[in-house]
Automatic annotation (TrEMBL):
Transmembrane segments: none annotated. Coiled coil: none annotated. This is Nuclear transport factor 2 family protein. It comes from the Bacteria. Residues 8-110 form the SnoaL-like domain. Pfam families: SnoaL_2.
């Protein structure tokens, strides 16, 4: 669990620093990621890069892991504190969210929001207030 916990902590740290290359280095080439501010999914590192670039152009999200639990089959449940602000600094959402990661060969292969794999089909309410 120590290596997996470190992997997840490094990913959140790099995300919060807006270090796209740092986060992508921790992912598989075909990573499957929810586009929580848009709805749908990004598949592959370049789609994730493009999505985060768009997201950070509209919002200032900060996500801090509170509890990391490893399950069978390479799935990691992470309870996070998610703070989403607009670019003017106004708080749009301040909540706890569940992220569920799939890790393969020591890299992040997928992330889902909550327990539902298709919960990311629509944009999250946290990002509903566009700037």
């Amino acid at each position: 669990m120590a290596d997996t916990k470190t992997l997840i902590e490094q990913a959140y740290s790099a995300f919060n620093k807006r270090d796209i290359n740092g986060v992508l280095a921790l992912m598989t080439h075909d990573v499957n990621w929810p586009k929580v501010s848009e709805g749908g999914r990004a598949v592959g590192k370049e789609e994730v890069r493009a999505y985060w670039t768009r997201q950070w152009g509209e919002f200032d999200p900060h996500v801090e892991p509170l509890e990391i639990t490893e399950e069978d089959g390479g799935r990691i449940r992470v309870r996070v504190h998610q703070l989403v602000k607009n670019l003017q600094g106004d708080v749009l959402s301040d909540s706890e969210v569940l992220h569920v990661f799939t890790v393969k060969a020591g890299l992040i292969a997928a992330m889902d929001i909550g327990d539902e794999a298709d919960a990311a089909s629509a944009p999250s309410a946290a990002f509903a207030h566009r700037s």
